[in-house]
Amino acid sequence: MPRFKAQSTKLEPEHAILVGVDTGTGEWSLDESLAELGRLVETDGGEVVATLTQRLEVPVARTYLGSGKAEELRDLARSLDADVVVFDDELSPSQQTNLEKIVGSHVKVIDRTALILDIFAAHATTKEGRLQVQLAQANYLLPRLRGMWSHLVGEQTRGGIGSRFGQGESQLEVDRRLVRKRISFLTQELKELSSQRYTQSKARWESGVWRVALVGYTNAGKSTILNKLTGSSVYAKDELFATLDPTTRAIELEEGRKITITDTVGFIQKLPTLLVESFKSTLSEAINADLILKVVDISDPHAEKELSVVDSILKEIGADKIRSVVVYNKSDLVSEEALRQLEAMHPNAVFISALDGKGLRGLLFRIAQEAAKGDITMTVEVPYEKGILMSMLHERCQILHEEYHEGGLRATAKVPERLAGTFEPYRLEG
């Protein structure tokens, strides 16, 4: 018999209490919103042990909850030995500080924004993604520094020995300067990366490459679609925010046209404004796309609400005027009858199952149709010494007929509108 019992080294998940206030004004019910918050907690490695709700016309300015409910939260946290309390809406710095005093210093009090930031920090892999998360974290932290130094400020206001140095305030100001300096540095770094991304995007535009962006609610299956269409191996997992950094892959359509498809960060309801701002350079792939595929998980009971969230964020970043197609994914998870009803309700949408490949050929055909809109049929004769133009003709245009003549390649092709000017000097009459 062994002298010592083997102990598991696996970290125990933190016990979390979810808190929400129902004001009756949201598009989502409180239960729906808290269910999503629970998934976020699980994504971040926590375990939900209890949920506390309150019905209020407006949240209480001092503690978000009513005083009685705040005390109930304290007692609940103690009885369940909770590690963290997560509020469904963003707390003000003073609300967070006051709640921490009530609940106790042994329990963390955070909000949805802080939770999402924590998940983003764990999932960002590229330099740009990490910088964007750090910038959002710094902007979130700055107004909350006073609360973090409240114990020192309190010692100062009490007076007595050691109080004349202004210890808390001086440290607070030092920290504020450091955070502001950090924000300035991160902003500049992201500007430089954004400039590089713009240059790359501009080059793709000028080369005539047609660009498709996959957008959608988190966990809708965008990465799986990208992998299936392009033969890639982008990380795809059944968890929220599995993909943060944009991934672009090239594909050649059956007609011969080369396009790019980009997977973007997943959206979520109540996505903090500071995150949208921080990730605008990443979302520029959607802003600069020729076609946006709005991917929706058809099996999710909140599918239409999630699509509404996607539409509102696209409007927020200025991408709502770009041509788009709704793609209902995971059709293998609904019944045939339900699928027929949805197809009848959304005749312009595309229905697929990325996991088993069903409907992907139809999706590619739809992309080809959209790409062909605005094409100009031209007959051109490109001299043989213009090798780049000849490659562009074959890779970016749809060749209808071609012949090789003494003067060069004579071809009739459907030319993308943005390339028409490039081939105009070589256009033949008639």
Primary descriptors:
6-stranded mixed sheet; 4 domains; 4-stranded parallel sheet; 430 residues; Rossmann fold; 45% helix; 20% strand; alpha/beta; single chain; elongated
Question: What is the secondary structure topology, with strand pairs?
Answer:
Layout: E1 14-22, H1 30-43, E2 46-55, H2 67-79, E3 84-87, H3 93-103, E4 108-111, H4 112-123, H5 127-141, H6 145-148, H7 150-158, H8 167-206, E5 210-216, H9 222-230, E6 247-252, E7 258-263, H10 273-278, H11 280-287, E8 291-297, H12 303-316, E9 324-329, H13 336-345, E10 350-351, H14 360-372, E11 376-382, H15 387-396, E12 398-405, E13 408-415, H16 420-423
Parallel strand pairs: 1-2, 1-3, 3-4, 5-7, 5-8, 8-9, 9-10
Antiparallel strand pairs: 6-7, 11-13, 12-13
Helix pairs in contact: 1-4, 4-5, 5-8, 8-11
3D structure, described in words:
This protein is an alpha/beta fold. The chain folds into 4 domains: 14-121, Rossmann fold (3-Layer(aba) Sandwich); 124-190; 208-372, Rossmann fold, CATH 3.40.50; 376-426, no CATH class. The protein is 45% helix and 20% strand. It contains 16 helices and 13 strands. The protein has helices at residues 30-43, 67-79, 93-103, 112-123, 127-141, 145-148, 150-158, 167-206, 222-230, 273-278, 280-287, 303-316, 336-345, 360-372, 387-396, 420-423, and strands at residues 14-22, 46-55, 84-87, 108-111, 210-216, 247-252, 258-263, 291-297, 324-329, 350-351, 376-382, 398-405, 408-415. The strands form 3 sheets. The protein has a 6-stranded mixed sheet with strand order 6-7-5-8-9-10, with helices on both faces. It has a 4-stranded parallel sheet with strand order 2-1-3-4, with helices on both faces. A 3-stranded antiparallel sheet has the order 11-13-12, covered by helices on one side. Helix 1 packs parallel to helix 4, helix 4 (112-123) runs antiparallel to helix 5 and helix 5 (127-141) runs antiparallel to helix 8 (167-206). The longest helix has 40 residues, at 167-206.
